[in-house]
Design brief:
The chain is an alpha/beta fold and 194 residues long. It has one domain: Maf protein, CATH 3.90.950.10. It is built from eight helices and seven strands. It has helices at 11-19, 33-42, 47-63, 91-101, 137-146, 149-154, 175-179, 183-193; strands at residues 4-6, 24-26, 70-80, 83-85, 105-116, 119-132, 168-172. Strands 1, 2, 3, 4, 5, 6 and 7 form a seven-stranded mixed beta sheet that branches. Helix 4 packs across helix 5. The protein is globular, with a radius of gyration of 17 Å. The protein starts with a strand and ends with a helix.
């Protein structure tokens, strides 16, 4: 198996790769995601395009320095009726996001990109639909009080394999996609790449 580099500081993505037998080292790309997102929104890019482009930028940035090595970049965005919901930077923002999603269906879009020698060689985008229960402000605050900071800021406002699953009436889609990495497609690609 090739040496694989994950261009992300996401512990969740690394855990998914390792649980699926893909050993990787981690080198975060540290691109300015919010500025890039804003610029793309001004150009009216779709949430899928934004997610894919961010994944590609992350992978390519690390890949330029790592000749012949395979680099995986990934990105996830929440799409609520065409509005991109970014990760909260504090608890007030987290509550505002939950209020926006409250009782509504939204999409979680996860893209992955594989790069080599500074160029994308493969990519995949997957989408899951999540319908949040209608909850009172008290219930939303109660949920937030149970969530540790590192989880809140790493997973956006819900961790689907933890407390977050209690927020939803309906979840349609792959759990790994919701957690940020459509692993089945990555495994298929890497198997054929060998």
């Amino acid at each position: 198996m090739h040496n694989i580099i994950l261009a992300s500081k996401s512990k969740v993505r690394r855990k998914i790769l390792i649980e699926n037998g893909i050993n990787c080292s981690v080198e975060p790309s540290n691109i300015d995601e919010e500025t890039i997102k804003e610029s793309m929104l001004k150009q009216q890019a779709s949430p899928e395009i934004i997610s894919k482009n961010l994944a590609e930028l992350k992978a390519n940035k690390i890949s330029q320095r790592k000749n012949e090595e395979i680099v995986i970049g990934a990105d996830s965005v929440i799409d609520l009726n065409g509005e991109i919901i970014s990760k909260p930077t504090n608890r007030n923002e987290a509550l505002e996001i939950l209020k926006k999603l409250n009782g509504k269906k939204h999409y979680l879009i996860s893209s992955v990109c594989v790069s080599k020698n500074g160029s994308m060689i493969w990519n995949h985008t997957d989408k899951a639909a999540l319908t949040m229960k209608k909850m009172s402000l008290k219930e939303l605050n109660s949920y937030l009080n149970k969530i540790k900071d590192e989880i809140l800021y790493a997973y956006n406002v819900y961790q689907i394999e933890g407390e977050g699953k209690n927020l939803f009436l309906k979840i349609e889609g792959d759990k790994n996609t919701i957690m940020g990495l459509p692993i089945k497609e990555i495994k298929n690609y890497l198997k054929n790449y060998e």
